[in-house]
Amino acid sequence: xxxLSGLSALCLIxxxxxxxxxxxxxxxxxxxxxxARLYSAWSSSDKDSVLENVSLIGxxxxxxxxxxxKLSELxxxxxxxxxxxxxxxxxxxxxxxxxxxxYSKELDFISRDCGYIFTFELDTIxxxxxxxxxxxxxxxxxxxxxxxxxxxxxxx
Amino acid sequence: MVNxxxxxxxxxxxxxxxxxxxxxxxxxxxxxxxxxxQVQGITLGINLEGPIGRFFDTDRSAFSAVTHINLxxxxxxxxxxxxxxxxxxxxxxEERNFRYESNGSFVKAGLLYDFFSVDEVGNNDNIFVGLNYxxxxxxxxxxxxxxxxxxxxxxxGSESAYLMNTHWLEVSAGPRTELxxxxxxxxxxxLKVKILQDNARELQPYSVPGFGNGDNTVxxxxxxxxxxxxxxxx
Lengths: 156, 234
Known about the structure:
The complex is a heterodimer.
Chain A: H1 2-16, E1 33-40, E2 51-58, E3 64-71, E4 73-77, E5 84-90, E6 96-111, E7 115-127, E8 132-137, E9 141-142, E10 151-155
Chain B: H1 2-28, E1 40-47, H2 49-56, E2 60-72, E3 75-87, H3 90-96, E4 101-114, E5 126-147, E6 155-180, E7 183-198, E8 207-208, E9 212-213, E10 218-233
Antiparallel strand pairs in B: 1-2, 1-10, 2-3, 3-4, 4-5, 5-6, 6-7, 7-10, 8-9
């Protein structure tokens, strides 16, 4: 049969579409951190600022997130078990501020290869005022795959 | 792994080439056949898509039965019913950070048009193009999942079993040939488009029975059917 020749050729095409050829999705890690950009409190418009010797640690935690680093932005991982994550941000042994990030979270399913994640919605940010002048929420959603800065930290 | 897949591909291709040889022999004899009218009937067969798919994904077990009914010259009803069970192996659960189980069934029904022009006595071959409607219901669960958090600590949860269903439309095309008297082999390529899914919770199906990849709205599938026809009219 003439069409059987075509049939056999098409088999090869079909094989390319078979389940064995499906690629697996690459999954992103550390998608649960608030991205904070540093701005100068002295400028009338948003002006990027860089802090030296920055240390960041979660309240009651032993390990630091950052230790004496020069930074213009921070990534602060959120705690899955609470609706508030508290961080201590310092630029020296004596100059430290506390940041309390209050949020709600929602369980989401990303894909069959990557499974579940949490999506967060920032509610309030409370802070002390040693060297942080103010904090504003620029983009309240912390979501898998997004890299938009969430908060603005205005520092003296 | 690559070698195993190459071997499987070879076997797979051979499945298609062999019937071609058989039919090639029978077509040589076609001129000698006694003229007969095209038969009408109902076929009962099996779709080997599930068993073949198990070579590629050992977590999945699937099987389905197929029927074709010759309604009028050129037009066929196609029906299919089957099941699919899927349980992540330990290796896959670890890799994907969640455990998963699904048990489900599906039905498909549609119309096929045969546009193969028969110019040979006794030739009952077809080339089908058709449209099918598919419906699947499944119970699935996640026995446990982990959301990793390197700093504060991982979150562990689970999703209990619940029912969900999926509706889709399927355009299919492919040939069917009569290997022996009343015994047919055919395959189709199927373009499936999800039109509705009733899923009350977050967990998305890893695979929808009869439809395929649960992440996708559009899937391309394949069916390879062996069937026997019970004639009712000559």
